[in-house]
């Protein structure tokens, strides 16, 4: 937001007066402002009605008594531009444009939206084609339908959605999520997700921000806003929907099958500490945990049930997702055992058993003893509450819940009570638990996932604040990529500082001599920018031991390529065979129109698509980030010496990939994609065995150096020497 827009957004959030412009929809919105508790002045504008929802109408905007702080605009699209011009000229603050019929509707709507943007001037405009905004803290609403939600205690989540109906569904949810603000952004012609994240992160009443994303307008701006929220200690939870299929332009490369839209968004979230969730229920439960309990300092949990089955459910899912229930040493076990009935077994999760159920004077000491020990960072209790009419035992449940809440407070731990089945926790109980400072969680899996997400956020915040990522490589305008042949690709890779096999480019007549110069055994490859996967085209032969074998392979290749419908080119690559590696990797850097340059690392060779073992990282990225990404791969077990096998130097592998990234960043204006598959990993070095290059212009021999940044630009000691030795072979 500009400073003027930020000022006007504040007026929109906390208006002294609201003007409702329109007909039936505007009348409903007046009712919603009243439902929210708005006590300011309400004005109505309609040239043909005497009143809207009991508010006397003026015939036109210019007849309003003064410039309104907030405006709800629900008029035909063709009238919107003129209305906005008049509102801007009179100094209105912000506008919710409920009107539809813009970019979302037809081609002409895009031009109309451009005009809307110009007419808005410095006003803070939400929409068009949106529901609007609800301020639960300041008690105002510019909203077109009945809405629920509340903000007990004056702090809660700020929700930003692109879907109006989803935002409405959230306000009606039976999850007791404390809500501070709700924004349905619609087309985001003026203000977008990035603006709202930035604005809400600066507000003390916002404990967490929830973002429903269909698509981002400006990825680098979102990165800055998310990092600002992280710095302020405001977690951002994202539900990304509408993942597009991988474009046809990417289908030719292995990378295209491994790194699509979903992976790029996940890389962005990982880079900025955003908690990514996969379902609406998880979205709400994670936000609720963060708003009520806060983020634990780690993954170690003290769990409690009054059922062996519940304890097993906690333990099973925690093990699957990576939460830990630390056990007890002998002294701790003895002290806790003395507080439990003889039938209880000291364990974590702890089934404290029914003989002490509902007796706070007995359950509190047990809860406290299990929580108050080094290494426990949060606590969770499983309770399914009785249904209405069957709730004579409710005081017993509440007694244990109160004892648990008091023990958690005394130990300074974030705490949650979760029901096994989501609906088995009534609204009164949920509200009571929030009053106790305990998050009322609905569903064991959702609860544990929320604890994990919150703990990981705290860890990511510490890590990112210690070493902030450099700004993302900015997206470039559209380019017309041209594929290069493997020899050109290898030259590009070698210029970056990576090792490639000794090789010669020749024609069929000179193939035997080239092979003798390189030294047997050799591989024979047909060079063609149009043939990216040589095995499928019959354009590669390996393990050729003498000149006769080379001659036979050339003749066979010519026949095979032709038989498969290809065109044989008399441009061949003779290459030294590399020994068997410890592991094979795919390493790729490619351009994305929104995200800039993205690095993908995965299992390489012929099993790339089958294994689907890959990680995507946005660039620039430091060597430590690259090493961490390598460590998340399944193939990392091979690199680390699987079952007593040879072990590679992970730092050397990360260095080699880092060099490739530096070269890509140096040529970001022209590079479309560079893919190495496979990259052979040996004990102390790597060799690029195959390379696919696509650039917008003929590649330079030397990529050059990107801007220096001490956070990611230092090579690992010794790696350069090994690369030069390998290149010289």
UniProtKB/TrEMBL annotation:
GO terms for molecular function: ATP binding. Residues 12-102 form the CoA-binding domain. Keywords: Tricarboxylic acid cycle. One of its GO terms (biological process) is tricarboxylic acid cycle. InterPro entries: ATP_grasp_subdomain_1, CoA-bd, NAD(P)-bd_dom_sf, Succ_CoA_lig_flav_dom, Succinyl-CoA_synth-like. Residues 699-729 are annotated as: Disordered. Transmembrane segments: none annotated. This is CoA-binding protein. It comes from Roseovarius spongiae. The lineage of its organism: Bacteria, Pseudomonadati, Pseudomonadota, Alphaproteobacteria, Rhodobacterales.
């Amino acid at each position: 937001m500009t400073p003027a827009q930020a000022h006007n957004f504040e007026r929109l959030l906390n208006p002294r007066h609201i003007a409702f412009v329109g007909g039936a929809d505007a009348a409903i919105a007046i009712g919603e402002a009243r439902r929210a508790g708005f006590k300011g002045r309400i004005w109505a504008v309609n040239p043909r009605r005497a009143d809207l929802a009991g508010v006397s109408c003026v015939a036109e905007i210019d007849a309003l008594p003064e410039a309104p702080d907030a405006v709800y605009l629900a008029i035909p699209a063709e009238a919107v531009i003129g209305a906005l011009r008049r509102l801007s000229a009179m100094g209105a603050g912000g506008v919710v444009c409920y009107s539809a019929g813009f970019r979302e509707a037809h081609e002409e709507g895009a031009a109309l939206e451009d005009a809307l943007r110009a007419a808005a001037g410095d006003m803070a405009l939400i929409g068009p084609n949106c529901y609007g905004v609800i301020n639960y803290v300041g008690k105002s609403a510019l909203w077109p339908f009945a809405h629920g939600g509340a903000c007990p205690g004056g702090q809660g989540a700020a929700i930003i959605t692109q879907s109006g109906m989803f935002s409405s569904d959230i306000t009606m949810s039976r999850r007791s999520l404390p809500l501070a603000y709700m924004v349905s952004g619609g087309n985001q012609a003026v203000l977008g997700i990035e603006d709202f994240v930035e604005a809400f992160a600066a507000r003390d009443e916002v404990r967490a921000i929830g973002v429903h994303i269909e698509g981002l307008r400006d990825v680098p701006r979102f990165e800055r806003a998310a990092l600002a929220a992280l710095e302020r200690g405001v977690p951002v939870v994202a539900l990304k929907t509408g993942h597009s299929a991988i474009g046809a332009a990417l289908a030719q490369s292995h990378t295209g099958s491994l790194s699509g839209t979903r992976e790029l968004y996940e890389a962005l979230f990982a880079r900025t500490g955003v908690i990514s969730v996969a379902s609406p229920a998880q979205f709400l439960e994670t936000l609720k945990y963060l708003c009520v309990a806060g983020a634990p300092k780690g993954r170690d949990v003290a769990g409690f049930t009054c059922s062996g089955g519940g304890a097993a459910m906690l333990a099973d899912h925690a093990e699957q997702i990576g939460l830990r229930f630390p056990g007890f040493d002998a002294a701790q076990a003895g002290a806790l055992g003395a507080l439990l009935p003889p039938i209880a077994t000291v364990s974590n999760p702890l089934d404290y058993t029914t003989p002490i159920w509902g007796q706070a004077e007995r359950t509190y000491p047990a809860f406290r003893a299990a929580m108050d020990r080094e290494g426990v960072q949060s606590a969770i209790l499983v309770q399914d509450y009785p249904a209405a009419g069957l709730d004579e035992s409710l005081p017993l449940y509440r007694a244990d819940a109160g004892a648990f809440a008091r023990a958690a407070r005394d130990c300074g731990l974030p705490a949650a009570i979760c029901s096994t089945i989501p609906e088995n926790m009534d609204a009164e109980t949920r509200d009571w638990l929030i009053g106790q400072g305990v998050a009322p969680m609905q569903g064991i899996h959702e609860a544990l996932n929320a604890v994990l997400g919150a703990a990981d956020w705290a860890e990511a915040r510490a890590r990112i604040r210690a070493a902030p990522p450099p700004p993302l490589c900015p997206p470039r305008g559209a380019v017309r990529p041209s594929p290069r042949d493997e020899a050109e690709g290898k030259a590009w890779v070698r210029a970056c500082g990576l090792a490639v096999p000794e090789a010669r480019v020749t024609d069929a007549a000179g193939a035997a001599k080239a092979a003798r110069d390189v030294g047997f055994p050799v591989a024979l490859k047909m060079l063609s920018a149009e043939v990216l996967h040589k095995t499928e085209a019959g354009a590669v032969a390996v393990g050729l031991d003498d000149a006769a074998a080379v001659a036979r392979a050339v003749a066979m290749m010519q026949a095979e390529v032709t038989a498969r419908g290809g065109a044989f080119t008399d441009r061949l690559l003779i290459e030294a065979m590399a020994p068997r590696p410890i592991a094979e990797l795919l390493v790729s850097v490619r351009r994305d129109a929104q995200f800039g340059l993205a690095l993908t690392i995965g299992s390489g060779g012929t099993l790339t698509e089958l294994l689907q073992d890959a990680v995507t990282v946005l660039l620039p990225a430091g060597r430590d980030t690259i090493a961490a990404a390598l460590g998340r791969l399944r193939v990392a077990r091979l690199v680390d010496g699987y079952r007593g096998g040879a072990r590679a130097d992970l730092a050397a592998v990360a260095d080699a990939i880092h060099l490739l990234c530096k070269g890509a960043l140096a040529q970001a204006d022209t590079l479309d994609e560079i893919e190495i598959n496979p990259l052979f990993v040996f004990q102390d070095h790597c060799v690029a065995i195959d390379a696919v290059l696509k650039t917008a212009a003929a590649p330079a021999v030397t990529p050059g150096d990107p801007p220096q940044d001490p956070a990611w630009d230092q090579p690992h000691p010794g790696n350069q020497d090994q690369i030069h030795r390998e290149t010289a072979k």
